[in-house]
Design goal:
4 helices; about 120 residues; single chain; globular; alpha+beta
Length: about 120
């Protein structure tokens, strides 16, 4: 039985999340849709969202012309990093949800690193 594209991505995501849970790290989880990008910092047990940012938020929408591009990912990454540092969280694991590390996913991680998070 062959898995389709979505199932393979979900398998990669489960594997990465299991490793982060094993190490007991907070994780920066990224979800991307065609029109927006979302980022959350989640506790190691997966029960609490410690910080979050998305291109849907009104204050970020004012800075963006479109929520589904690299510029939006950059702003969301900086915002979630600032909120995490305000909550005294500086060392996290990166959960890219099984997506390839390029484009919007890469830009979000790079901007969070530049803002002070240790990913």
């Amino acid at each position: 039985m062959t898995a389709n594209k979505k199932e393979k991505r979900q398998q990669r995501a489960r594997k990465a999340r299991a490793k982060l849970r094993l190490h007991g790290k907070n994780r920066l989880c990224v979800f991307r849709s065609a029109q927006h990008i979302y980022a959350q910092i989640i506790s190691p047990d997966g029960q609490l969202t410690l910080a979050s940012a998305s291109s849907v938020e009104p204050e970020l929408r004012k800075q963006l012309s479109y929520g589904g591009n690299i510029a939006a990912a950059r702003i969301v990454g900086e915002t979630v990093a600032k909120r995490a540092l305000a909550a005294k969280i500086d060392n996290i694991g990166f959960d890219r949800s099984g997506h390839r590390y390029h484009g919007r996913i890469k830009e979000l991680a790079d901007s969070a690193r530049k803002a002070g998070l240790a990913i």
